Amino acid sequence: MKRIFSLLLAFLLVVPFAQAQNAQKDPQAQKILDAMSKKYQAMNAFKVSFTQTLESPSTKVKESINGDITVAGNKFRLAVAGQEIINNGATIWTFMKKENEVTISDFDPEEQEMTPNQIYTLYQKGYRYVYAGEEKVGGEAVHVVDLTPDDRDNQVFKVRLHISKKDNSIKSWKMFRKNGNRYTYSVKKFTANPPLENNYFAFDKSKYKGVKVVDLR
């Protein structure tokens, strides 16, 4: 589970680190981050379709995968790379499509490096951030904000966020790891307050014929 979240940022999705010397909590960057955070926290739920691109200079690999994530408070449902991860705030179901197997476990927030519902508030504790200017993403003007973890042992040493100047939404972000790998997440489609069934954040075994259940609770 930790690997999934670190590769996200599931949605996914996304938040900040950078080993810039003398980096501070830049007031201009904080204003932009606060506006972004306020936008997402005001929603009952949201759904994002994204593309994750891995670039590895050492192995000369560049590959992309697509995913979708829906978040509502401390609940989320993530589909990426042949996996479906569902969290209702107390229980996590991890379904592996190829194996037709679902693993059930208790959700412990303390064991997670990052969860989707933390994405838009993570910068508020343990990070420094600086405003890095303006760019264009898909023809749209965006603010560029770099974040740096206070923890120098963090394997992600920088995350660069692209935040829309128009509506404060996240358009893309890039994670820089110490091993040289770079992960870019691009938002393809965003839906605010999508209609959700009552049991949306639960695994319905009846919809997965012949599924093997591994209950670790």
CATH first level:
Mainly Beta
| Integer-rounded radius of gyration | 18 Å
How large is the count of helical segments? 2
Structural class: mainly beta
Number of DSSP E strands:
12
Which H/E pattern describes the elements?
A: HHEEEEEEEEEEEE
CATH superfamily: Lipoprotein localisation LolA/LolB/LppX
Strand order of the largest sheet: 7-8-9-10-11-1-2-3-4-5-6-12
The proportion of residues in beta strands is over 45%
Task: Examine the coordinates and then state which fold CATH places here, giving the name of the CATH topology.
Answer: outer membrane lipoprotein receptor (LolB), chain A
Measure the end-to-end span.
15 Å
Which whole number gives the mean pLDDT?
83
**Overall tally of structural domains:** 1
* Helical percentage: under 10%
From the spread of the alpha carbons, the general shape counts as globular
Main β sheet profile: 12 strands, mixed
CATH architectural grouping: Clam
Low-confidence stretches: 1-23
Descriptive report:
Helix content is 10%, strand content 46%. Strands 7-8-9-10-11-1-2-3-4-5-6-12 form a 12-stranded mixed beta sheet, with helices on one face. The protein has 217 residues and is mostly beta strands. The protein has one domain (2-210): outer membrane lipoprotein receptor (LolB), chain A. It has helices spanning 2-7, 27-41; strands at residues 46-56, 61-72, 75-80, 83-87, 91-96, 101-106, 127-137, 140-149, 156-164, 170-177, 182-192, 212-215. It is globular. The protein has 2 helices and 12 strands; from the N terminus they run ααββββββββββββ.
